[in-house]
Amino acid sequence: MEYEDRYMQIQRPKYDCLLFDLDDTLYPLSSGLSESVLENIQDYMIEKLGVEESKIPDLCNLLYKNYGTTMSGLRAIGYDFDYDEYHSFVHGRLPYENLKPDPVLRSLLLSLPIRKVIFTNADKVHAIKALSRLGLEDCFEGIICFETLNPTHKNTVSDDEDEIEFLGPTQSSSALSTSPQVFDIIGHFSQPNEGSIGLPKTPIVCKPSESAIERALKIANIDPNRTLFFEDSVRNIQSGKRVGLDTVLVGKSQRVKGADYALESIHNLREAIPELWESADKLSEVNYSSGVTVETPVIG
């Protein structure tokens, strides 16, 4: 009983889960992958969707601004395409050789006895390949990816998270129904006083949608009030903050609205948030002295 009392008197760690974005968060923007992704998206729009090249810059800007990702926006305004084909085209030609093993980050992650989960808008193949190149593939409990939130083997997203694999389904996406006439979003915003009200909705679930973040947390059984969310995107950070997450803006030295911490590099994690290790050390000391075992849930 004495040991149990000691254990209960120690304040439990503030966080029991670390939720990480992948691209430009676990590796720097200077890797060049994001630049290549944008080029490949634009090539896909021209080669596969028949979009006029002169419209690409304005269209990409409006879709990204209003829908979170260009892919989400393309589906919203009426373009029909196979999700797997899109991801294969956009990610299949990336310079993955620019990603090198990161033993420093690996050591930091493995030194924290806290749940660690990836949450990315990218597809599963890209996420696994990027993590493998970084040497971090075994540092995370699971990956919440495009397929997790968009189970393409079903017509609608299931309300039963037990039916959805944490890593996303392995089935190939089937061809979607014939798309309706494409909505002229450029023309829409060229009209006086027109805004986002009245825009068609997207069938794709992704960040920075608050409902997407909430769904991801539900699927992975993550408590937002005890989770630290790492992101390079300011708007994703702000959405995460609105759903109750504590947030870390990566790639910036100054905090912005919605960010609890700012890290110029993910390598600065220990210096910027030392309490993560302090809490873990205290808990380890109590567990060792009292014989209390703390279980860490694992979702397959």
From TrEMBL:
Instruction: Give the signal peptide as a residue range, or say none if absent.
Output: none
UniProt xrefs under NCBIfam families: HAD-SF-IA-v3, Pyr-5-nucltdase
Protein name stated in the entry: Uncharacterized protein
Q: Which organism is it from?
A: Penstemon smallii
